[in-house]
Each structure stands twice: as C-alpha cells, then as structure tokens.
Amino acid sequence: MKWIIDERTERFKKALMKMGWYTEKMFLRSIEALESRDTKLAKQVIEDDNVLDQMEVELREEAAVMLGIHNLTGIQLRFIVGSMQLANIFERIGDNARRISQITITILREQQTFNPDLLKLGKLTSNLLKESLRVLADLQIEGSFEICSKDAEVDELYLDIRNELLNSARNKPETVDRSSLLIEIAQKMEEIADLSTNIVEIILYIVTGESYKCFKDEMKLFKRSEGVLFDNPD
C-alpha cells in the first residue's frame, strides 16, 4: 500500500508543479505584453486564466480523494493539505496576471505611456516567484528565508512608483485616470511578490511541520501560546 501512496503523491506533486509553472508563465507573459505593447499576448494571458481555474479545481478534487481513501501521515499529509493552499495561491497570482493584462489592453487602446519602473518591479517580482517555485520543486528549506528578505526591495520600489504616480495625478489632473491604472498594475505585482512569500511559508510548514510567517521582510517562526480558536492541547 505504501508504494501506491508514494506513487500517487509523486503524481500529485507533478500536477502541482505544472500549475505553478503555468502560473509563472502567465505572469511573465503579462509583463512581456506590457513591455512589448502586445495586445494579442495580453489577451492570451486573460484566456489562460480559465485554464488555471480548471487546474485548481482538479487539484482540489484529487487532494480530497487522496485524503479520503489513504491514511496519510507526516510530510505526505502536510504536503497534500498544503497543496490545496498552494493551488489557491497560484489561482490568485493568475487573477492578478489577468488583471495586469486587462489594464495593459486599456493603456494600449488609449495610447497611454507607462512608468518604466513598472518593468523593473515586474522582473523583481518574477524572480521571487521563480525562486519560490524552485523551493517547492526541491522541497528544501535552503534559500527560503532569503526570499522573504528580498520582498523588501519589491515593497520599496512599489512605494516609489506609487508616490510618483500620486504626485503626477495631483500636479496634472489630466493624468489621474492613467496614474490610477498604473498604480493598480504596480499593486498587483506587489501582491504577487507577497503571495510568493506565502508559497515559501507553506513549504516550510510541509517540510518542518512548523508554522512560519514572513513579517517585516523576515521569516519568523510562529510560536503558539494560548489558543484563539482552539485550546492549546499542551
């Protein structure tokens, strides 16, 4: 029976990684569409989100089946439970990539320009996502803590872009609509960076059995004391 569980878990992991890499490809395409001003590519990202939604449904259904028929324990149990959370995170990243592409189409249709720092923000964010997927593929905690600290650079650049666009909107009222759209793109990218750190938090739980939180750009062990929803069994 153990070999059946091992084989099915490995098959499940391959499906999860396929979803993760598909998510990464969507985000990279959304950045490329913005940089190359490619409406066709932006529309492709929007269509791809439907496929990603289907992937999430299939993963959740397979996870439910595995939890129902197999007596999973230890890291295998944590992996399947954590994978349902990861699938939801991938779906949220895909939603953000879709929204970025929708805004890109609006910007191109109205022949508006965009802040070049957005591309830098996108590339910083894509690097974080790529690194988090590598940690997931290896199921190793090495390099995971650095991903949290690198999120600080994304946050700093996001605030710079946001402040610059807000100042532009205040000084030039005619740019309010453009600035609002670009701020939303930057916000979606920053959210994807945060979701990348959430991926690492889940991986740390799967591997170590301990709960970690990326707090103020530092990965910290979440030490439980008194229960909030449930009494501490200790």
Word description of this protein:
With 234 residues, this protein is mostly helical. It has helices at 2-36, 39-69, 74-109, 117-138, 144-171, 176-208, and strands spanning 212-215, 218-221. A two-stranded antiparallel sheet has the order 1-2. Strand 1 and strand 2 form a beta hairpin. The longest helix is centred in the middle third of the chain and has 36 residues, at 74-109. The protein is globular. The relative contact order is 0.12.
Secondary structure elements and pairings:
Blueprint: H1 2-36, H2 39-69, H3 74-109, H4 117-138, H5 144-171, H6 176-208, E1 212-215, E2 218-221
Antiparallel strand pairs: 1-2
Helix pairs in contact: 1-2, 1-3, 1-4, 2-3, 3-6, 4-5, 4-6, 5-6
